[in-house]
């Protein structure tokens, strides 16, 4: 499922990242989000907020729709 479809406070593992848009891929990977990364979805509106390692990030739905996750 896409990260945008996730539920708040659930823990997810990144399965893949859509790589059609190279700029989006660069932004996502610069946050340390790669396949196998564990993240916790903290907020969905007005932006997606999630925790990766000990950092929190906020991204828009466009980028969140390019991250595919599965429930841990």
TrEMBL record:
<dbReference type="InterPro" id="IPR038157">
    <property type="entry name" value="FeoA_core_dom"/>
</dbReference>
<dbReference type="InterPro" id="IPR007167">
    <property type="entry name" value="Fe-transptr_FeoA-like"/>
</dbReference>
<dbReference type="Pfam" id="PF04023">
    <property type="entry name" value="FeoA"/>
</dbReference>
<dbReference type="InterPro" id="IPR008988">
    <property type="entry name" value="Transcriptional_repressor_C"/>
</dbReference>
<keyword id="KW-0408">Iron</keyword>
<protein>
    <submittedName>
        <fullName>Ferrous iron transport protein A</fullName>
    </submittedName>
</protein>
<dbReference type="GO" id="GO:0046914">
    <property type="term" value="F:transition metal ion binding"/>
</dbReference>
<feature type="domain" description="Ferrous iron transporter FeoA-like">
    <location>
        <begin position="1"/>
        <end position="71"/>
    </location>
</feature>
């Amino acid at each position: 499922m896409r990260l945008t479809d996730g539920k708040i406070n659930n823990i997810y593992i990144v399965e893949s990242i859509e790589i059609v848009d190279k700029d989006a891929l660069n932004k996502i990977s610069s946050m340390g989000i790669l396949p196998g990364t564990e993240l916790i979805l903290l907020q969905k509106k007005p932006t997606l907020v999630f925790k990766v390692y000990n950092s929190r990030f906020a991204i828009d739905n466009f980028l969140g729709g390019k991250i595919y996750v599965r429930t841990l």
